Amino acid sequence: MTILVVGGAGYIGSHMVKMLLANGYQVVTLDNLSGGYRDAVLGGDFVFGDIADRQGLDRLFSGYTFDGVMHFASFIQVGESVNDPSKYYQNNVAATLNLLDAMVAHEVKTLIFSSTAAIFGEPQYVPIDEQHPKQPINPYGLTKWMVEQILADYDRAYGLKSISLRYFNAAGADPDAQIGELHLPESHLIPLVLQAASGRRKSVTIYGQDYATPDGTCIRDYIHINDLCQAHLLALQQLLTGDSSSAAYNLGNGAGFSVKQVIDVAREITKQPIPVVIGENRGGDAASLVADSKRAQTMLGWQPQYAELATIIAHAWQWEEKLLIRHS
Fold it and tell me: So what's the architecture of 189-220+254-290+306-327 in CATH?
């Protein structure tokens, strides 16, 4: 079977490409390299292009027979989405419509969509299950929720089946350290902490320490990148068998770790001091965001294999050490 991975040169997409190849799929990656890296795509065919290009999509779908599509080509920075909402609506919604229309035109009826916990907004209860109200508080979350609703309409009208996977905090790196997290600029906590450990960054900032949590710092649900990709693979396989309806699942470990806990574990793993600066609370940061992933475990047969924070950080540290050598 041949799978199109849109955004397959990015952090999650590149790990997905590697897992698909390891499981015997033919893979075609479509990426404009605005946030990804060509050398992160470890096999299959690579096509430089953009889902905003309708004619390019038509050529691509005419040149291959795809059994399914995985969509990772969204912009993901919450702050940027507030400052430049047009960029987010154009790419995350309008360009996604181009992709869906190309799928319908070429009769490709299977899509795995990269969604987000940001669709829920401020949590009304924790852990957050799929029934939690959807009240996104920024354009990023709004664009993802819009696409989920569009997918429901495309299923009803055109028979396009989809599974939306709502991530909490993707983290870690390929256990073989072939690929890992590499954003410019970096905004995710674990790589920022490890950059402070390796000396590529002077310190890491804790934004607020007076939240209603045991140690005063925000709690987040970190899910290993390989566990995330495994859920995507199971969702894809379920849709490809033809015995599954469209669905949406929350993905997380179901356990939260505070910012201070992440830093403490990173100090143990790296054997480095990791200087810390205390900053002001950031507007919109919820005290605790933790997923209830029971539905994904039940319906997909998914079970995280790398649930320990120490394992997630150890794999990320292997990648950071590799990056340090590359930068030296």
Answer: Alpha-Beta Complex (3.90)
* Residue 37 annotated among the catalytic residues of the structure: no
pTM of the model: 0.96
Question: Tens of pLDDT along 255-304?
Answer: 899 999 999 999 999 999 999 999 998 776 778 889 999 999 999 999 99
Segment (H or E) for 291: none
The residue from 25, 140, 167, 222 that is catalytic is 140
Summarised one tens digit per residue, pLDDT across range 232-244 is 999 999 999 987 7
Kindly state the tokens that stand for 218: 């925000």
Domain with CATH 3.90.25.10 in the chain: 189-220+254-290+306-327
CATH topology (fold) of 2-171+223-251: Rossmann fold (3.40.50)
The DSSP result for 198-229, as a single string, is HTSSS-EEEE-S-SSSTTSS-EE-EEEHHHHH
Distance CA(299)–CA(281), nearest Å, equals 38
Within the chain, what is the greatest distance between any pair of CA atoms?
57
The helix (H) or strand (E) run that includes residue 57 is helix 54-63
